[in-house]
From TrEMBL:
PANTHER family: TRANSCRIPTIONAL REGULATOR YQJI. SUPFAM superfamilies: Winged helix' DNA-binding domain. This is Transcription regulator PadR N-terminal domain-containing protein. It comes from Sinomonas flava. Residues 2-70 form the Transcription regulator PadR N-terminal domain. Transmembrane segments: none annotated.
Length: 136
């Protein structure tokens, strides 16, 4: 993933995280704990070089890195196949889940016990209805 992104342009570690998230439409956002050790390893293997310090450190492919990327272009492209991004239906679903979580929070903090009992029954109904959809 890192090599693939660096074939497109030089990036900071944070830029790599953001680019991976953008390329997968937010489905995958690698953690700094996975990106920075990978960058350090690629620097040690002389596939990547760094310029700058701290947050402004930018990483670019070396000549050896560009050759590796060219030799493994198909493999680098396939790395993204496991995270194809989201469809409009998935984005709408995620938005609905967020709205649902908001109302659940209101029930947790502002509802009476009677309202929570009614809500629990409705949630159970919804859970069963959703399982029926999956069973189709």
């Amino acid at each position: 993933m890192v090599l693939s992104l660096l074939t497109e342009q030089p990036l900071t570690g944070y830029g790599i995280i953001q680019a991976a998230s953008a390329k997968t439409n937010g489905m995958w956002k690698p953690s700094p704990g996975s990106v920075y050790p990978t960058l350090a390893q690629l620097v040690d293997e002389e596939l990547v070089e760094q310029a700058g310090e701290g947050k402004r450190t930018e990483y670019t492919l070396t000549d050896a890195g560009r050759a590796y990327a060219a030799d493994h272009a198909e493999e680098l492209t396939k790395a993204w196949d496991s995270a194809p991004g989201t469809s409009e239906a998935t984005e709408a679903f995620i938005e609905s889940v967020g709205k649902f979580m908001g109302v659940l929070h209101q029930f947790r903090t502002a509802a009476t016990d009677a309202q929570r009992t009614q809500a629990a029954a409705k949630i159970d109904e919804a859970r069963k209805a959703l399982y029926l959809i999956l069973a189709e």
